[in-house]
Amino acid sequence: MAKLRGVFNLQSFRQNQLEAINATLAGKDVFVLMPTGGGKSLCYQLPAICEKGATRGVTFVVSPLLALISDQVNALKAKGISTVQWTSDSGDQTSEVLRLLRSSRKPKLVYVTPEKLQLNGATKSVLAELYRSGNLARFVIDEAHCISTWGRDFREAYTGLHVLREEYPNVPIMALTATANQGSVNDIISRLKIEGCVKLVQSFNRKNLNYIVERRKGSILASMVEFIQEKHANHTGIIYCLARKTCEDVAKTLRETYGLKARHYHAQLPTSEKEEVQQQWQSGKCLIMVATIAFGMGVDKADVRFVIHHSMPKSLEGYYQETGRAGRDGLPADCLLYWAWSDANQLANMIKRGNDNQPPSPETLEHQIEGVYMVARFCMNGAQCRRTQILRYFDEDFDPRNCGKLCDNCSEGGAIITEDVSKYAKEMIRLVDDLENDNVTQAQILEVFRGSRSAGVKAKGHDRHPLYGAGQDMNAMLRDQLVAALVAESGLTLKYVLNSQGWSTIYLRVSVSDTLPSLVLLIRQM
Ligand code: ADP
Ligand code: ZN
């Protein structure tokens, strides 16, 4: 406790931190599942500086990213904790680290990439020495989901970490992650061979955040300003936009037309300007940061009272992270999301272009575009509690009665009814199946389904298909939801063609494995 105040300058522990610290100090293996920003680092940084019982010595922290390691190492050094970074490819660094580990002035923490922790030659013998002399305090596996082939962040070198338990059976292991998928959790535990570990798993629910989702009609600037002036005058907030240009324009209008203290931020700003803008925002001179998602990593301002999405985020995970920057002090904060169908197309185009005009691999493309459809489905689902929807993405069952009416869907009146759209779903799938060879896009299939008389439909002769107009008596909102639901969950997949310009238009295709027994959508009866 004294160290918490004295060294880390914190007042009290957050959920599960003390439990994790005590368990590892008692020599137990620990698995910690905490949302990003929950405070995972303290769970091993504080024990690392405690000399207690059998666990004195050096704490090894395995982390996948150089940037993460550098940030943490610098922060720890600034607190006066002797910490070593072991990441570089140069042999010099390795021999220096090994020399330090042999010396009498051993560091408290060694941050290492999994590749560096290969147990051979000199490394192996130094670790064995530490082990024999009781100076191996624990192994910490940060971002532990990288070990699981279930996840997207799978990293080959992480799989080698099973040797830690085999070579050093008495050294406690702590694994930490923010990935809650039950399959990955079990996979991590069995791959690290820590089956008997203390499991500290907490809900990803952010109780103090109020989620509001609105369909965007035309320009939303006026409505955004009204929201800010009514509820958040003089509060700090973030507005996320998709494009750099939009950030610049929105910030400029907020400043010049509405007199708000807004600045813009995106990846293309010179470093000095980025620092300056961030500093202004951090210190409260600028209140509203209008930014692309380039703004966020490492942003740690406790009193952000609102996060607005000017348009649809790229994935539900991204949405959770971005909105998660609001209300870190635990006080109420608002998360307002504006969206339009065209956002999904714009996002798909951005994804198709890839980073630095390097088109993504087919798997990445498919995965990311399905992620966009999941967001679309979330936006359109105007009935079910937003928390239930978001947390389901993290494999968590959230009872909407615990929402406290802190989301648009729970606070709005009107009964929720379920609409069995299985019949329509089957027809839609059959339609896509039949028209697959004509390469139909989502917009085209919806035209045929609702029986549009457009020239495009006629030109392809789709108006003569027996299922032409099959969905004409269906409510338009439900029809949109149907496609998104089928893509996000089952029945339809997307097909892309790679040509010299990169990935081309996205076509719908029927996924072979899916028979789709039934599909029920929730709607609100007004
Ligand atoms: P994670 O690794 O889970 O994403 P971090 O360890 O980076 O989270 O912590 C996120 C932020 O929360 C940091 O700024 C950290 O200083 C702060 N924090 C962690 N523990 C506490 C605590 N007990 N009290 C207050 N702030 C804390
Ligand atoms: Zn709710």
UniProtKB/TrEMBL annotation:
UniProt xrefs under Gene3D superfamilies: P-loop containing nucleotide triphosphate hydrolases (3.40.50.300), Winged helix-like DNA-binding domain superfamily/Winged helix DNA-binding domain (1.10.10.10)
Superkingdom of the source species: Eukaryota
A GO CC term assigned to this protein in UniProt: chromosome
Every Helicase ATP-binding domain range: 21-198
Helicase C-terminal domain span: 220-369
Single GO BP term: DNA replication
Keyword terms of this UniProt record: ATP-binding, DNA-binding, Helicase, Hydrolase, Isomerase, Nucleotide-binding, Nucleus
One Pfam family hit: DEAD
Name of this protein: ATP-dependent DNA helicase
Species the sequence originates in: Pleurotus eryngii (Boletus of the steppes)
